[in-house]
Specification:
about 80 residues, mainly alpha
Length: about 80
């Protein structure tokens, strides 16, 4: 049971980290695009923002986290 709890927690936290990384990448691209307009350098066009993907990952991450928190490990003495 402790292994299941660890796997669920790390999966949920991994999804949260992925959502934050996607948002950070989009913000960095948008910032570079705005900066390129002033410095006349060539930057790849910004793709559409992936806010919906980040929100979906963030909301789905709570499922495994809540399951992991609800697992109660009882150790008995021998």
């Amino acid at each position: 049971m402790p292994a299941l709890k660890i796997v669920l927690m790390s999966g949920g936290l991994g999804m949260i980290v992925a959502a934050v990384s996607i948002l950070a990448c989009d913000v960095r691209r948008a910032w570079a695009q705005r900066r390129s307009h002033t410095s006349n350098t060539l930057v790849l066009p910004v793709e559409r923002n992936r806010w919906s993907t980040s929100i979906a990952l963030g909301l789905l991450a709570w499922g495994p986290i809540l399951l992991a928190v609800s697992v109660l490990v009882i150790l008995r003495e021998r």
